[in-house]
């Protein structure tokens, strides 16, 4: 279905935003748009919303399965405003997810279980949000794939990830069960990455709640939403496997000139399977088996 604006979608599809999960896909360019939408449709979301420019086309098989909303992502803050609009319109407790094109959600056992099943379990553990790590993907050969995007020859870093204590909150308190996570292409080429964009943690899956707001640094104004687990045991985490950073670095003239390959001795082919991400410690199954 197509809509004239985000407001139009929210007025017409209030029923979609009662329980979820609903995926919000923000389309910044024309790279792997259909692939991104198909991946999230197959993941088991109740609805997939493509927020994208009118100029981009979609294959016929996808047009009838997604909710297409006219949207311009050229200003980095616009997706955050849109997500907060959806939060305000959604029924409290509705599960929401967001990502950009050329990003792909993986979670434990996603080959045989749906995102709806996973979130049902997560909710039973009294969790209202789920930490995800944005894992940088990149083409193995930039001479063959100068955009740094290749689904068939994608690589990721198998090590080089680390966490740091998160700075104290404005009221002077220390945030509990919160860390800033780093690694991947953003860490290895941090001289080309703004400091505010170097973290790889993102609360991609969360429940709507009155007064909840997503901040420009991918955290929420509700501190419990920013935690990696409950106080009692480890919880599920997910991974958003993303070409977005590599793609941006090759589009920027300065970093494009400086970077001839993203591969290094800790690069490994991406297998497009949750088992690889679990084995590498890039997501956590928690108590879900």
Please tell me about this protein's structure.
By secondary structure, the chain is α/β, with parallel strands linked by helices. The protein has two domains: 1-101, no CATH class; 102-289, no CATH class. The chain is built from nine helices and 13 strands. The strands form three sheets. The protein has an eight-stranded mixed sheet with strand order 3-2-1-4-11-6-12-5. A three-stranded antiparallel sheet has the order 7-8-13, with no helix packed on it. A two-stranded antiparallel sheet has the order 9-10. β2, α3 (60-63) and β3 form a beta-alpha-beta unit. The longest helix has 12 residues, at 78-89. The model has no long low-confidence stretch (mean pLDDT 96).
Summarize the structure.
This protein is 24% helix and 21% strand. By secondary structure, the chain is α/β, with parallel strands linked by helices.
Please describe the structure with a list of short key phrases separated by commas or semicolons.
2 domains, alpha/beta, 3-stranded antiparallel β-sheet, globular, 289 residues, 8-stranded mixed β-sheet
């Amino acid at each position: 279905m197509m809509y004239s604006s985000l407001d139009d979608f929210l007025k017409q599809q209030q029923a979609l935003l009662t329980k979820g999960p609903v995926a919000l896909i923000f389309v910044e360019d024309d790279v792997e748009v259909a692939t991104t939408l198909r991946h999230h449709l197959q993941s088991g979301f109740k609805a997939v919303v493509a927020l994208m420019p009118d100029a981009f086309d979609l294959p016929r098989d996808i047009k009838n399965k997604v909710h297409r909303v006219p949207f311009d992502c050229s200003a980095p803050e616009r997706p955050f405003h849109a997500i907060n609009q959806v939060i305000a319109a959604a029924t409290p407790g509705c599960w929401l997810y967001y990502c950009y094109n050329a990003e792909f959600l993986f979670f434990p056992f996603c080959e045989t279980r749906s995102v709806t099943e996973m979130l049902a379990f997560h909710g039973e553990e009294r969790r209202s949000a789920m930490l995800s790590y944005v894992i940088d993907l990149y083409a193995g050969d930039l001479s063959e794939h100068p955009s740094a995007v290749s689904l068939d020859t994608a690589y990721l870093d198998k090590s080089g990830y680390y966490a740091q204590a998160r700075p104290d909150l404005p009221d002077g308190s220390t945030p509990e069960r919160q860390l800033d996570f780093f690694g991947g292409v953003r860490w290895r080429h941090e001289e080309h990455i703004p400091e505010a964009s170097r973290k790889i943690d993102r609360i991609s899956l969360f429940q709507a709640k009155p007064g909840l707001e997503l901040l420009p640094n991918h955290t929420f104004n509700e501190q419990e939403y920013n935690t990696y687990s409950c106080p009692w045991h480890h919880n599920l985490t997910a991974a958003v496997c993303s070409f977005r950073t590599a793609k941006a670095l090759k589009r920027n003239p300065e970093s494009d000139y400086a970077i001839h390959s993203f591969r290094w001795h800790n690069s490994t082919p991406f297998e497009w399977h949750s088992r690889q991400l679990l084995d590498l410690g890039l997501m956590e199954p928690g108590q879900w088996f």
